[in-house]
Amino acid sequence: MTDTSKPGLEGVAQAAKAAGARGLPPVHLWNPPHCGEIDIRIRKDGVWFHEGAPIGREALVRLFSTVLRLDPDGYHLVTPVEKMKITVEDAPFIATRVDRVGEALVFQTNVGDEVEAGPENVIRVEIDPATGEPRPYVHVRRGLEALIARPVFYELAEMAVLEGDTWSVTSNGAVFPIAPPGAAPA
Fold first, then answer.
1. pLDDT > 70 in the chain, percent
2. C-alpha closest to that of 136 among 150, 122, 148
3. Over 70: is that where the pLDDT of 19 sits?
4. CATH fold of 8-88, please?
5. How many Å apart are CA 70 and CA 81, to the nearest integer?
6. ∠ at Cα 115 (28, 95), nearest 5°?
7. For residue 16, which of 10, 34, 73, 127 sits 20 to 30 Å off, Cα-Cα?
8. CATH superfamily of 93-177
9. What's the rounded mean pLDDT across residues 143-158?
10. Using one digit for the tens of pLDDT, what is the confidence trace for 85-137?
11. Cα 142 from chain centroid?
12. pLDDT of residue 47
């Protein structure tokens, strides 16, 4: 049996490994006590940092991503025995690829998630009021989103069709506007 009682980064890693052996851990069912904050930050570009240094081990980032949860007070790494708040500058993940598979748009994230856009995994686009630039996102799981990388958004723009005065894409029967009315998608 794995000891999940170690505090901090090592304890989170051990608990995630133990739970991850069976697929994504049920972090939405865990209600451990809040143990404070841990110096982990996910930058806007999807790079994870611990104590100011990038986490260079991709496998460790993927492991931590499996125990990430969004609560009303922010993002936390959650195990059965502890809950530690982290900083996320924008979205915790980046959608790095999209493929049309039948009627579905299938996204890949920088942490290995694969998600089909549809009624439960929506695509939304915010427009930055200062720059007018689009900030597109896709829902990944339980409130966690991926920022759609610019090259991937360009691919979506190529797939978009004009419906009325709005450019949209469809996936699994859902229609997602990707540009404001009257604007080009990218």
1. 84
2. 148
3. no
4. duf1285 like fold (3.10.540)
5. 17
6. 105
7. 73
8. duf1285 protein (2.30.270.10)
9. 96
10. 999 999 999 999 999 999 999 999 999 999 999 999 999 999 888 888 899 99
11. 10
12. 97
Closest-CA residue to 85 (of 106, 67, 99): 67
Q: Which of 3-7, 105-109, 160-164 has the lowest mean pLDDT?
A: 3-7
Residue 185 CA to residue 22 CA, distance in Å, equals 40
Residue 63, token pair as written in the block:
């492991």
Taking the model in full, what pTM does it have? 0.85
Domain parsing of the chain, residue ranges: 8-88, 93-177
Q: Which of 28-32, 39-43, 74-78, 179-183 has the lowest mean pLDDT?
A: 179-183
Residue 129, pLDDT score: 86
DSSP assignment string, the chain: -------HHHHHHHHHHHHHTTSS--GGG--PPEEEEEEEEE-TTS-EEETTEE---HHHHHHHHTTEEEETTEEEEE-SS-EEEEEESS-SEEEEEEEEETTEEEEEETTS-EEE-SSSS-EEEEE-TTT--EEEEEEEETTEEEEEPHHHHHHHHHH-EEETTEEEEEETTEEEE-S-TTS---
Q: Please list the residues that pair with 98 across neighbouring strands.
A: 107
Which residues are bridge partners to 48 per DSSP? 42
The reply to whether 8-88 and 93-177 are identical in fold is no
129: left (phi over 0), alpha (psi -120 to 50) or beta: alpha
